Structures are given as structure tokens and as C-alpha cells.
Amino acid sequence: MIEINKYFEFDLENTRDFLNDEEKENREGKLKLGDNFIGKEIKSSNKELFDCEDCYGNKYVLKDNSDLHIYSSSKSGSQIHTLLIHKFEDGDYGLWLTKQAPYYYEDGKIVNYFTTEEATVGEITAINKNKYLQEENRIMDDFLWIYAGDDIIFPSEVEEQQVKQGEGNSDGVGSEAGIVAAGGAVDTKNGEEGENKKGKDSIVDIGKDGKLYVCHGAILKCSKGTVPCTLNVIDKHQVYLKSKPIATVDDSKPVNISSFATCKRHDSPPCTPKLSGKWKGGKESVLVHGVPVLLKTSTIKCAYGGTITIINPGQGLVSE
């Protein structure tokens, strides 16, 4: 088992060309071929024999059995060396071939691929939960090594948490951040009355330090999927949260939850979620046309064994 901040080094002038690791081995490390850590600027190749190539001239071929072959020439160019990674999945050793890494480095900033949010490296590493990026030397040579399952906290998420805890503005009472509905479509069971404002009913904030409501555009994660998925809320009830359609426990159909790319079950087939009923853990006391609204802590099961959770609710101001 390698330590997470270690790397495998291969001397291409000698004969150690193959990496024959076992399934249980920790793949959260880096690969160094000669003088270069590989992973940077991997792009589709225009050569028929190869799938991808990187900025160092290494060529990548991903076989049907998921074995990854990396071809690299010696310094003299007279010999081709092959590095073999068995049962490769995107994110192994920080390599991303068929999918985009969830975070990447660009012009001194770290960018969230799914939300396009960005922050400087200094702002990111100043957050305690991101300290591992420095401790494990994840940023080198203008490149960010990201492994499957990594999470990076952005300053906006910290600010949203502070707002929720009362260290900023109030939680959207009577403001755009509130839940706004047309024609009395929203109901509460705890006796709270909607506040009539400009012909619309607005539910005020129900307590503080609660669980965040979920809206269209929330980011979902499946325990058996390989990349996150965006929640699609069909705007049929005209109930909005920060100008986005609010989600309910009924948003549990293929049109709402499309795909998490590849399923981690046997043979790694394309992900086609087979959802088991409705979301669990909705807000029973706040209803949209009689249906409980969704909370960040809500979950739903897939018949293939995955548990789908909400990693970003699509907004950070309005809580139960």
C-alpha cells in the first residue's frame, strides 16, 4: 500500500516498464516517467493507433478490458517503453482520459468543472479542509492532481455556511432568497402563513441552522457512479427558490436524474439509474402541490446498489 503523497517512479533508460498492481492497491498517487509527472494536458489523439496523448509526448491506449497502456519513448527515441495499468478508472493516479476531472488548475486558480466556480490557489488552500492539497503536493508544474472522490471546498461554500449559522444576512426572509410560489401552490403544516407580496405567496424562513432546501441545478453523487450528475427540475409548479424551480421528493425520474457516467458494478457498464421510488427525507411540513420539498440531506436508492446523495443543493441561503 503506497502512502497518498508518494509516487511511482520509472526509469525509462532501464527495463522497469510495467506496473502490475493489485485491485486493493491504493491508486491515489502520482506516476513519474523519467523526469516528468504524467497527467498534465491529456487530450484526444489525432493518431489512429492511440486514444490520447499528453504534453510530454506519452501516448495512451485504453483497451476494452479497461487495461490502460501508456507508451513512452526513451530519450534517444530508439526504444518504446510501455507502462500497463490494469483495470484503469478515471482518477487513478490523477489521470483522466474519458472524463473531465471535477476540478482543474488554470492561471493560478482552481476551477470546479461542474459549477464553473473558481478561486485562487491561496484562497482554496487557506480553507482547513483543503490543506491536503499542500500536504500531498497536489499542485505542481501548473497542474492539479485530483483522484476519484476528492472534494475541494470553495470560499463561497464557507460563506454560505456562515450565513446559515447567522453570521451574515438573515436566511432569505421576505427576500429573493425566499421560496416564491404562484397561486398558493406551497403549503406548510406548522401553521406558518405565506406572506403576500406583489401577488405571489412567499414562504418565510422556517427556523435557522436547518437543512438547506434543494433546487434545479443541484449536484448529485452516486456511491456507484464515477462522476456527479445535475438535478433537473421540470418547471411545472411555478415554485421558485432564488429564481430556480424548487425540488420535491417526486423529482426522482430519469428526466430528473440522468446519468453518473459509468457504474462501478461488474464490467463497468454505462450508468442508467434505476431509481427505487421517491427521494427519502424530504421536508414533510413544506409541500408543493401536496408533495414534500427536497432537503440537502435527502437520499434515494438505485436498484443497482448505489445510494444517491446531494453534494450541492443549488443554493446556500434558504434552510428549513
TrEMBL record:
InterPro entries named among the record's database cross-references: DUF4280
Pfam families the record matches: DUF4280
Protein name: DUF4280 domain-containing protein
